[in-house]
Design goal:
Strand content: 25-35%
CATH topology of the largest domain: Spore Coat Polysaccharide Biosynthesis Protein SpsA, Chain A
Number of domains: 3
Shape: elongated
CATH architecture of the largest domain: Alpha-Beta Complex
Number of strands: 37
Helix content: 10-25%
Distance between the termini: 115 Å
Radius of gyration: 33 Å
Oligomer: single chain
Largest sheet: 12 strands, parallel
Length: about 475
């Protein structure tokens, strides 16, 4: 046969009904995340890359949570509810019923196998069609097969059956070729034989693997395709395997970006979600996380010690030792070190958010600078503004958040507090230590300075015996002696 993946209709069934008790989590196993997506999200993204006619996802445990994640990852997928009869065989049987008289091929995937890519699965389907098999099973050879079903071959090397570990004899359990839970069936043969499986096994479940044995017993061709990369074909069953899968996926993702023209100085400490987008000539320095839907423009430098979540970073911007979420950093802008950008921060082109600055729900215009030791919340800042060290926009009156408006080309003194709601007009200036409670007109200088009063001798009188009192007394004596001369 010379069929390709496009020659025959393909339906995909994703099994996502289990609880995953070994995760020891209130969250369903398939919703645990790696690389910016839940496990089932990775499986669905891969399934969609094959352009199947249908995707069906079988759910049961925490049904609504899983269904919501499926709808977000693959809006075109059909959610199918498994009934009280347990087992993968029953899950596929119910999904298959939704396909009616579909006569193409059915690819069955597990919702907890996130690392198989579209090319591997396309090759599996093509191999299946080229062999003319009723079913093709994906297997892997591993050092430790504990927990997996074993692929049992006959004297000729052909697949005879798959035995779950709890049902395996000692000899069968010693086999290191495992079933990874990925199959391609011809739909008519699957429909006929899946109706014949029972629950006479150690777990009292309908095993999908029993269909393979029935097809073999019916003298229908059964094939095995061994995965070239066993680590990519294995499922996630506990937190240890979750972290291993995350590292494997991240290493793959980082390498793909390096090949695409991104400099990653230390891949071992760099984490890039599969949902992030980086342009050529981006430089990522050590201990940096580029997460979720973050987009980084050409020539930008991110890190070291930086975390970006759902951010947009413009070309040639620099972000160092900082944490930003749902923020926009303009082209040529500079952030950090030790800046904290909370959601809805927008920094304009060539702007600056400097050392120990926190921003939230604020827009900072092109070329404007908040260099250090400041809190800017619920604020609009115009262009060409320079805020002195220690600027605070006091946005909360204990009941309501208010906004501060700062016009273009405003320069403020150090340690200013802007008590919102307040507006600073274009070109205005403020003095050091000012507390601004009223609007400042354009071009005005705002001061709130009380006359300085010096209380002579206060330290010696109120702090007798201290080092400060002693040096003050000596300095006063020297001053008096000098004045006397």
């Amino acid at each position: 046969m010379s069929e390709t993946i496009a020659d025959t209709p393909l339906a995909v069934i994703v099994l996502a009904a289990g609880q995953g008790t070994r995760m020891k989590s209130s969250l369903p196993k398939v919703l645990h995340s790696i690389g910016g997506r839940p496990l089932v999200g990775h499986v669905l993204a891969t399934a969609r890359s094959l352009a199947p006619t249908s995707i069906l996802v079988v759910v049961r445990h925490e049904r609504d949570l899983v269904a919501s994640a499926v709808a977000e990852a693959a809006p075109d997928a059909l959610v199918v509810d498994q009934d009280e009869v347990p087992g993968t065989g029953r899950a596929v049987e119910i999904a298959l019923a939704q396909l009616g008289d579909f006569a193409g091929d059915v690819l069955v995937l597990s919702g907890d196998v996130p690392l198989l890519d579209g090319d591997s699965l396309a090759a599996l389907v093509s191999t299946h069609r080229g062999s003319g098999a009723a079913v093709t099973v994906m297997s892997a050879v591993v050092d430790d097969a504990t927990g997996y079903g074993r692929v049992i071959r006959g004297a000729s090397g052909d697949l005879e059956r798959i035995v779950e570990q709890k049902d395996a004899t000692a000899d069968e359990a010693s086999v290191t070729e495992i079933n990874v839970g990925v199959y391609v069936f011809r739909a008519p043969e699957l429909r006929t034989h899946i109706a014949r499986i029972g629950t006479a096994n150690a777990q009292g479940e309908k095993y999908l693997t029993d269909v393979v044995g029935l097809l073999h017993d019916a003298s229908l061709p059964v094939a095995v395709s061994t995965a070239a990369d066993a680590s990519a074909a294995l499922g996630v069953n506990d937190r240890v395997q979750l972290s291993e899968a995350a590292r494997t996926l991240n290493a793959r993702t980082v390498r793909e970006w390096q090949v695409a023209g991104v400099t990653v100085l230390d891949p071992a400490t760099t984490w890039i979600d599969v949902t992030a987008t980086l342009a050529p000539d981006v430089t990522i320095l050590p201990n940096t996380h580029i997460l979720r839907a973050t987009v980084v423009g050409a020539g930008a430098t991110i890190g070291p010690d930086t975390s970006l979540v759902d951010c947009e970073v413009g070309e040639n911007a620099v972000v160092r030792r900082s944490d930003a979420t749902l923020s926009v950093i303009g082209a040529g802008a500079n952030v950090g070190p030790f800046a904290y950008l909370r959601p809805n921060t927008v920094l304009g082109a060539k702007g600056k958010i400097g050392t120990f600055v926190e921003t939230k729900n604020s827009t900072i215009g092109d070329g404007s600078k908040v260099p250090h030791l400041s809190y800017i919340g619920d604020t609009n800042i115009g262009r060409g503004v320079n805020l002195g060290a220690g600027a605070i926009t006091a946005n909360y009156d204990d009941l309501t958040k208010h906004r501060t408006e700062i016009g273009d080309e405003v320069h403020t003194g150090s340690h200013n507090v802007f008590v919102a709601p307040v507006r600073i007009g274009d070109g205005a200036k403020t003095g050091a230590g000012a507390v601004i409670r009223k609007d400042v007109p354009a071009g005005a200088l705002a001061l709130s300075v009380a006359p300085q009063r010096n209380v002579e001798g206060w330290v010696e009188k109120n702090r007798p015996g201290t080092g400060a009192a002693e040096v003050a007394a000596r300095a006063r004596s020297a001053q008096e002696a000098g004045d006397g001369a």
